[in-house]
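agent: user wants the full assembly modeled, not chains individually. Plan: 1) parse entity lines 2) check alphabet per entity 3) run joint structure prediction 4) return tokens. Steps 1-2 passed, two entities, 809 residues total. Proceeding.
--- entities ---
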Amino acid sequence: MKSAIWGKLAEFLADPYKRLEEQKGTYGKRVIGHFVPGIPAELIHAAGLLPVALLGSSKPISKADAHLTQSTCSLVRSNLEMALDGHLDFLDGVVLTHACECTRSAALSWYDIFSTPFFDVVLLPKKLNGSPVVRERFTEELSRFRNSLENFVGKKIPDGRLKESIYLYNQGREALRRLYDISRNSPQLVTSREVFMAIKSSMLMPKEEHNRLLYQLLSELELKEAGKTTTYKGVKLVLDGHMVEPLVILDLIEEVGGYVVGDNLTTGSRCVAEDIRLNGDPLEAIIDQHLASPPFAGYYDPRVDRGQFLLELVEKYHASGVIFLILYQCDPYVYDYPDLKKALNKASVPNLMIQTELSTTSLAQIRTRLQAFIEIITAGGVFAGAE
Amino acid sequence: MGQTEYKRFESIRLQRDIIDKNYQRAIEAHDRGIPVVWTASDFPAEIIYAMDMIPVYPENLAVMVLVKNELVGLANLAEEKGYIQDICAYARCNLGSVESGISPIGPIPKPDVLCVNTCQCFQVMKWFEVLSRHFNVPYYVLDTGFLPEYSWDKIVLNKDGDPSNGRSAKQYLKRQLQEFVALLEETAHRKMDYDYLREILDRVNRTSQLWFEIMESAANIPSPITVFDLYIAMSVIFSMRGTQEALDFYEKVKAEVDERVAQRIAAVPGEKLRLHFENMPLWYGLREDRDFFAKHGVAVLSNEYLYMYVKHYDDLSDPLGSIAAQYEHSAQNSWGGIARAKFISELINRLHLDGFIMHNSRTCKNVALELPHMAKVIKEKTGVPGLIFDADHGDPRFYNAEEVRRSWEQYIVMLSDMKNKG
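--- prediction returned ---
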């Protein structure tokens, strides 16, 4: 018997921005939409605001074409489409980022098109190389952002307040990691889809509410899991890329006999892997977490060999293969893919690349390719992800 | 239609020889054990020249391949490795060449150091990151950080088009430049000669001024010059700004421009319409496009991209600080769509333009993504309608010549009608 909480999360995720709009009155907070990755939601939360990640929708895109060309990724175009449709009118502010060409371009026309009371663009350094020069820039930019939020709400964000928010978010991350662990051990109890539903909704729902749901869920699950050893025979997989969208791709993976034991997605482990320490200066702690988080292709990060990182994930979770999920037009990931593929092939780790789009992904074709991939793995072959 | 022959510049023909010689020097330097630096267009190469090194530009080399119409073979090689067609045609050209060792334009010295500036675009940062893994050499990312201004009213463009901005990255940039100088010093086992750097910056100031005046001579009616001359002439300031050869070259071009202006010689005889062109040209169809527009009496006079190479270093007592101040806001890309729209609107007024054509280059995301919004804004502000067409700056597989020509022709007819009706 599945927990009723999954139903709640599924219902919420069916149209999250609509739900948020409907419930805005009960939250009693002004709502700030923000692009991903790199925006510290903890800071927005500590300012007494409700941070909500802008993760697009699966609805067809048309109005956005009047502002951005179709070489823009569907995540950014979909966010703009939602805004043009009036579906984000309930937002009191937006925070954008320059994580890549597409987010940067959205940031520039966004200001011109909409007039939310609060608007900011957080310009984090593009390189994470351990240089003190870069570190200082981080501090400077996050302090500026903190200041900008403080001006908007008309009061300071005390360190103590920020630490409370960090604590709350750490709790959420820890709960999600526990959920992920349960799924790794017992995918029949928690499916991969459910793990990613939980993570995605954690980026959208008020944190207090989401943590409550997670705790309830975990206590139900941990009772069920107690004393059980797993007998599940599925093929263990690692996902790499920016996001897994639409989530139904995870159902397809399960249908063909696979499940996810690790990932490096922005809407996955990247937002739960690292907690923010509570001692010391909280802004510096946020930067430390940013620098320690799993690598994101949009940053130049010579400290981490992304190929090695993936191989370690494969080894740690005894995965049999890696699936690259690359959004169409998501060029940072395209540049990384050939070298990552090479590293995996060299280590004889089967891998597959699938290009996805928020609105019009061809699921039948993806299913066929996933099925062939799983069959080759179970037959013991090495699948050199031909694309 | 009468035969309208495009009038080419004699002085600009010298460009090829200048570039070839400089390239030859890079090869010789490499043979003498001087480190080779691969970089990209909006990196402050003045620092590299000041260390007596010659920068090599994979973008330039890619354009040479494109002009010879030999991209597809190299791009295919890159695409076979997994560099799918979503990414920059220059990058696929270069990565195909690097991975396969095939170079249609002769041998290219391997890099000892790689460096890019993020204000140019983010793709170039990723492209060179791939190169840094391939060659296993130091890679410096100058992170300009993109400092756009978002509000039309707040954007103030000076005469060269540099916008002012509330945010500053000057210190961040200056300290990075210091890191970069240290990297070059370590690689070359010698110290930076800051007096020599000042001399180079001073020459860049003078060269930039000439380049700016050459571009702005297009305000004359008829115009002595068009972008098709400027695209060719640009290669020198692009890769050799700060050298004496560059300064001499632009003095010669300027003299020829002045002579044409004095004698009212038109680049496009019988000039009827005057246009702005946005984004990179179709490198593989440059001559055909030049002749197409000339045949229709259309002078294409400006391109924001050409203004990228106007640099001014105001305080030579602090060379790195000056470079930081210049690069903080210099690349048109980093201003963002609204500032770019304002810049184009000002060009429309200043150069007496009738319209603007925007090239939605499929794989140049940085310059292209915002074009639809920019076109709307320019139309609102100036009343001048624009045209957006789809193609690619490098990959002819995304170019349907017939369709593009038809859309240009229709646009020209529409503008002519508007003009005739006053």
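agent: reporting back. The beta strands of chain B are 37-38, 55-56, 113-117, 139-142, 273-278, 298-302, 355-361, 386-391. The first strand of chain B starts at residue 37 and ends at 38.
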